[in-house]
Structure formats: C-alpha cells, structure tokens
Design brief:
Helices cover 41% and strands 8% of the residues. The protein is α/β, with parallel strands linked by helices. It has one domain. 31% of the residues are buried.
C-alpha cells in the first residue's frame, strides 16, 4: 500500500514504528541505515517519495548510547560506544564522534524536502499530515511517545550541551530544535 514511499531510516528516531504502521514502505534500514544520497546512488529510491524521521539531538544521542549498551552487548554492535561506561564520560570525551556511522541527521536526510522530514516528538500528527499531503487517507494505529523507565536519566551539564550542540549544530538549527 505504501510502496511509493521511501523511508530514510535514521537509527533511534522512530523508523521501526513507521515500518510497523505503513505496510510495504521501502527503507534504508538494511543493511546499514544508508543516507538518502547513498540510497539514491544504489537505486533504491527511484520514483518514490522520500521521507525521514528526526529526533532532538540530545535525546537521539542518549538513546543511541543506551541502545548500544543494552542491546550491543548481545549483538556486538559498536565497541567504540561500549568502551564508555557512562553517558557523561561518553559525551565529554566526544565518543559519539567514533560511531561507525557518525553522520548528523542532516547528513542522513540531505536532498529530502524538509516538508518530508517528520519529528519523533510529534510523530503521530506529522505522519498523518504527511500522508494527507500525499493523498493517502490512512488510519494508522497511533502510539504515544515511549518513555523507557529503565534508561538512566541524564543530567546535562552546560559543557555536555555545548559539546553536543557544536557537533550537531546543523541538526539543531535546520530541524527546529533548540539548544
């Protein structure tokens, strides 16, 4: 039903939810979360309508770190992240710059019209609006934004925020997030 759409699946932004509620949508998830440009070069996009989901860079980074520490031990995901025992040390030592794929979210979506870029924080409404703009009347199962109670809370110091902001400055500015 959604074969005309192509999701650039940025890790830890809600792409799994999209694939669940939009049957048949193509995505860049396999094998390695390609960027939009990589997907175009591989001929995956063709005549499809590209879209993506982004997330507040602070939350995105913390979610990725936590995911690697909980699931990464089982699946051997990214040893660069596992080398840091706590999130604060990870940020202060710029461990996120050693990701296997250290692209910013803007690098993932470069070339996608911004009206086709949805935000995790308001995903249900933005997805509904996106589908409507593309003449798709579809009543999908809406989900509340999940809060993982097991994930340790982060106390963001000004120094941590500055480090993350400097690296992901384009994401903050172009995607509508504030410092």
């Amino acid at each position: 039903m959604f074969e005309n759409f192509f999701l650039v699946h940025i890790p830890k932004t809600g792409g799994t939810f999209i694939k669940k509620v939009l049957p048949g949508v193509s995505s860049s998830f396999k094998p390695s979360h390609e960027t939009f440009q990589e997907s175009v070069e591989k001929g995956l996009v063709k005549d499809k309508i590209p879209f993506s989901v982004v997330r507040n860079p602070y939350d995105w980074l913390h979610s990725w770190y936590y995911f690697e520490h909980t699931r990464g031990k089982i699946k051997k995901r990214d040893p660069n992240i596992l080398a840091y025992k706590d999130f604060t040390t990870f940020v202060l030592n710029k461990g996120f710059m050693k990701f296997r794929k250290s692209e910013t979210q803007c690098q993932y979506i470069q070339g996608i019209p911004l009206e086709n870029v949805l935000h995790t924080e308001s995903l249900n409404q933005e997805l509904e609006d996106f589908l409507e703009r593309n003449n798709m009347n579809y009543d999908f199962e809406k989900e509340p934004i999940r809060v993982n109670d097991k994930k340790p809370k982060v106390v963001w110091t000004d120094e941590m925020k500055d480090i993350v902001y400097l690296h992901y400055k384009n994401d903050f500015e172009k995607l509508g997030y504030s410092k």
